[in-house]
Amino acid sequence: MRRIWWVLFVTCLIVLVQDEGRRVEGEDVDVDPPKVEERMGAVPHGLSTDSDVVNRESSSMSKKTLRPSAEKFEFQAEVSRLMDIIINSLYSNKDIFLRELISNASDALDKIRFLSLTDKDVLGDPDSAKLDIQIKLDKENNILSIRDRGIGMTKEDLIKNLGTIAKSGTSAFVEKMQTSGDLNLIGQFGVGFYSVYLVADYVEVISKHNDDKQYVWESKADGAFAISEDEWNQPLGRGTEIRLHLRDEAQEYLDQSKLKDLVKKYSEFINFPISLWASKEVDVEVPADEDESSDEDDKSETSSSEEEAEDEDEKQPKTKTVRETTYEWELLNDVKAIWLRSPKDVTDEEYTKFYHSLAKDFSEEKPLAWSHFTAEGDVEFKAVLFVPPKAPHDLYESYYNSKKSNFRLYVRRVFISDEFDELLPKYLSFLLGLVDSDTLPLNVSREMLQQHSSLKTIKKKLIRKALDMIRRIADEDPDESNDKEKKDVEESSNDKKGQYAKFWNEFGKSIKLGIIEDAANRNRLAKLLRFETTTSDGKLTSLDQYMSRMKSGQKDIFYITGSSKEQLEKSPFLERLKKKNYEVILFTDPVDEYLMQYLMDYEDKKFQNVSKEGLQIKDSKNKELKESFKELTKWWKSALASENVDSVKVSNRLADTPCVVVTSKYGWSANMERIMQSQTLSDASKQSYMKGKRVLEINPRHPIIKELRERVVQDPEDENVKQTALLMYQTSLMESGFILNDPKDFASRIYNSVKSSLNINADAAVEEEDDVEEVETAETHGTDDTETEPSEVKDEL
């Protein structure tokens, strides 16, 4: 009986393992290029594979040639350049390719999930509606596959997204590579997909969009790619599968332990399940071999025939336990979303990893600060904010027109958008993070959501929390503390030393733009301002620190604007202030001119530009000096009638310089005039009314001014004195930072002054050249004047 059973069992096995091959009209078909028959994702999580999975995944993947029938394209020049850099890169960390592909897959899943909020049908059948990412490896054919059920790509999408890229992104990335050699930030430039060529020499992208057929994109990174309608692979339903034919030196990425570690390291906080088709060893009961059964029969010969007859029906087939390899989908990212957890339960390391995931920045640098909070009340939401350690390369490019955002909006854990200006103002666009609201409606369009009243409340709270977070960086920095507090702060936060200076160097301009744009939070932002002063020895200081050092009786906060610190420190406007030990703020950023048009006062103290009218410095003799130089100032204003000078006054701000030109209190400073004139589309006619009235201020203690006064008293009509007065005015214009309207006239006066100092007659003429014709000679072939006929040339040759 046992022998009959074993014969039947062996016969069944032979039938099952027979491979008939694939035939079309009776002929074997060699499928080229490679394909995978098994539809990824057919087995639910936690269930072992069926015994026929190997047969269903069988494929002829050895050839790496483009499909002959495919439509061929050439890569955009920028893409080819980028791929050359990647392929020839000596960058050792090739792991980044996996995180970039998973990040792209997550973005595709976000898009289809958002569309499904208003149209459930876009998800398709139950299998396609399962939003996840699946990773599969094929050691036999050296293929690594990443599959998502995201929105998919049409044929045009494949051409646009994988064949062309924004030139600015490429240029910025190439520049970054040339300076640092670091490919780690490739995802921030929108070119992360091409990192696959770090490990693969042939790539297939199979994609199905609801609005188009299924297509295959393929490239060997040789400057071209091909696209064809997919007639070789199982229908995806919807989504994208990327197959990487790995290089020989990249075989480590066929190790499932390696893949698990990479997902854990880089993609732990992706909001969709990431599963690996993983193998594992299990114990399985199988029928015992025939020889083993025979041995057992011999041992039982002593049993009586009656006992055998009684036990025959109850007796079970002989089995044994063996180790077999099975496959099943293993979930790799089972960590709960950080923002849904209590802040006290999240470690600093987890916050740092989450930041890197959001920023697509996997360098070793930690965020400067973060804020994790829950808002309750009429509008409830959870949020996590991060201050990155470095500013994006294009932070201020197209500042007011860019829709780029680093902040993500979720509604009930569903990603909605990262282009909501209503969440954070432009000046805080450098912050990274997300907000997850249970109050906002889920099944409405993005446009309707942007108009929702709750967004205003969310925005207001986010701004407050963001500014508090930035202020905390300063509060915890020992370099920012007053002397009384510094000892305590240094003991508790040595690791925070210099952090606010780092923040300011990266994002200081954003704080200034916030003061310009956000009137409601202007005072809070002003507390975050940092600048150098005439007495700060190159260190940054705050307005509060400046005010703590103000002299007794000082009514205004003094500042000056210019193009550089070195230029400002030599400015004649600071001479008297320095001698009297007044501290002056040095503003050298072009945006500072706009800033000070909005920041009029701070803590009841007015701001005073020391290069403008209105500077008040105590001088007991100033009134007497004004009276004694009254005749000179009146004469000088008349002499400058053609120069559009509003008035000439005795100055209280000069020490060593004879005179300077200041502007009216509410007009443009010299620095602002220079900035506006440098604008490409500036209109001089419209700018004229914004230019401040010019006032010449003279130093009554300077010997030149004293001598001029004596000369004017003696002879007001002396032409030499008038020319000297004009020359001094033009010189003071330049020293005060203005641009001369007529440089030629100024140069002529300088040359006349030089002639006078050398005792050269002012009318002395320039010696003219001798009127002699120069005869040019040139060597020619031949000495006679006859022309050479073509036939003669031919004969010579």
Summarize the structure.
The longest helix is centred in the middle third of the chain and has 22 residues, at 454-475. The protein is of the alpha+beta class and 797 residues long.
Description of the structure:
There is one protein chain. With 797 residues, the protein is of the alpha+beta class. The protein has 27 helices and 24 strands. Among the domains are: 72-276, Heat Shock Protein 90 (2-Layer Sandwich); 340-475, Ribosomal Protein S5, domain 2 (2-Layer Sandwich), CATH 3.30.230.80; 531-610, Rossmann fold; 622-757, Heat shock protein 90, C-terminal domain (Four Helix Bundle (Hemerythrin (Met), subunit A)), CATH 1.20.120. 35% of the residues lie in helices and 17% in strands. The chain has a nine-stranded mixed sheet with strand order 3-8-7-6-9-5-4-10-11, with helices on one face. Strands 12-13-16-14-15 form a five-stranded mixed sheet, sandwiched between helices. It has a five-stranded mixed sheet with strand order 17-19-18-21-20. Helix 3 runs parallel beside helix 6 (167-180), helix 14 (499-517) packs across helix 19 and helix 25 (719-735) packs across helix 26. The radius of gyration is 40 Å and the shape is elongated. The termini are far apart.
List the helices and strands and how they pair.
Blueprint: H1 2-17, E1 23-24, E2 27-28, H2 53-56, E3 71-74, H3 77-87, H4 96-116, E4 133-138, E5 143-148, H5 155-163, H6 167-180, E6 200-208, E7 214-219, E8 224-229, E9 239-246, H7 256-266, E10 274-287, H8 290-299, H9 305-311, E11 319-331, H10 348-359, E12 369-375, E13 381-387, E14 407-411, E15 414-417, E16 432-437, H11 446-450, H12 454-475, H13 483-492, H14 499-517, H15 522-526, E17 532-533, H16 543-548, E18 556-561, H17 565-569, H18 575-579, E19 585-587, H19 591-598, E20 601-602, E21 605-609, H20 622-628, H21 630-639, E22 645-650, E23 659-663, H22 670-677, H23 684-687, E24 694-698, H24 703-714, H25 719-735, H26 743-757, H27 790-796
Parallel strand pairs: 4-10, 14-16, 18-19, 18-21, 22-24
Antiparallel strand pairs: 1-2, 3-8, 4-5, 5-9, 6-7, 6-9, 7-8, 10-11, 12-13, 13-16, 14-15, 17-19, 20-21, 23-24
Helix pairs in contact: 3-6, 14-19, 25-26
